[in-house]
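Backbone shape codes:
***
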Amino acid sequence: APGQAIASAAHPDDRAAVDAAIRQLAATGRPFSANDARALHGVKGGVVGAAFTAAHKAGLIKPVGDEGSTSGPTHGHRIYQWKGAA
């Protein structure tokens, strides 16, 4: 999405941190979510969604379910659970 691209471009250090967390979690072979990634990188905002979208499109991760968000502002919305696709 255009908003995600703008968020990533505006925060390259945040994007790099989120990408690294996604790679680390994908390598475990266990399901994980943005909640788990946030515990590693501490980043909030559109850059997180952009990183997950890009990792999915690149074939690094695949969706395997969903869970409730633990981020306060999201009010428990459902978020995807992912697994490394390799």
